[in-house]
Amino acid sequence: MVHKEQDSTNVGIVFTDLDGTLLNSERKVSANNLTSLNQLGENGIVRVIATGRSHYSFTRVIDASFPADYLIFSSGAGILDLQSGELLFSANLTDHDVADITCKLQEEEADFMVHHQVPDNHHFVYQAAGGGNKDFRHRIDIYRAFAREFGNGNQFPAPAAQIIAVLEHDTRRFTRLTSCFGQYQVTRTTSPLDHHSMWMEIHPHNIHKGSAAAWLCNHLDIDPAHSLGIGNDYNDLDLLDFTAQSYLLKNGPAEIHNRYCLARSNDEDGFCHAVRHGLSIL
């Protein structure tokens, strides 16, 4: 599916993914991308970063002076006003949800983390099924100060912002596991660590980047027909299906290239290219 072109002069809000989209391979924002963000602000266009990172993880790569207005974090579990610091929206799995999901993941011998409620969802309790899941261990090492292993007095937090299962790259297994969680939102993400493993993000039903973008448009009284979205991975699909103009960077998976307008890669100022293509005023 390719989105129809809209009247670019009417764009009122731009949503962009962070890792692999706004950030290059060195996890930096290029000068051209930064200029585009500033130009959007100068033209009164709302700038929203929509990321799978928690708010804490976001602050590790983006400082408080960054030219953006709102943050959708943890793939839609929370929405933050970056100017005031106010948490506008959050969604959590219930105690029953956590018990149900963790039981199924244990039965399936998956490695997973259960994250505390927003805004403290950089803290998590994990359970390993055994084996050599290097990507899973890598994530634990990164957040060692906030990670606790299940057992020995450490229980899964409930309610919880999200549950993340880290899987080897096996599409059939991912699809089979997804079928176990029909009453929840299951989002596929390519690991930002080894760029190969598959992360299964589990949220309450209909909580994802696209639903968060819809909530924010309603909150700001902006017609979604005046929205533009930019992303690069599977966890951006709900966002790109929501926005009126949608761009996928060419460093994204080849199998979804034909679903949206294709822009340059994140190492070729793809964000800037998409913005300039979508907004003739810049």
UniProtKB/TrEMBL annotation:
Q: Which GO terms describe its molecular function?
A: magnesium ion binding; phosphatase activity
Q: Which InterPro entries does the entry link to?
A: HAD-like_sf, HAD-SF_hydro_IIB, HAD_sf
Q: Quote the SUPFAM superfamilies the UniProt record gives.
A: HAD-like
Domain of life according to the entry:
Bacteria
Q: Name one GO cellular component term.
A: cytosol
Q: Which PROSITE patterns match?
A: COF_1 (PS01228)
Q: What is this protein called?
A: Uncharacterized protein
Q: What is the lineage of its organism?
A: Bacteria, Pseudomonadati, Thermodesulfobacteriota, Desulfobulbia, Desulfobulbales
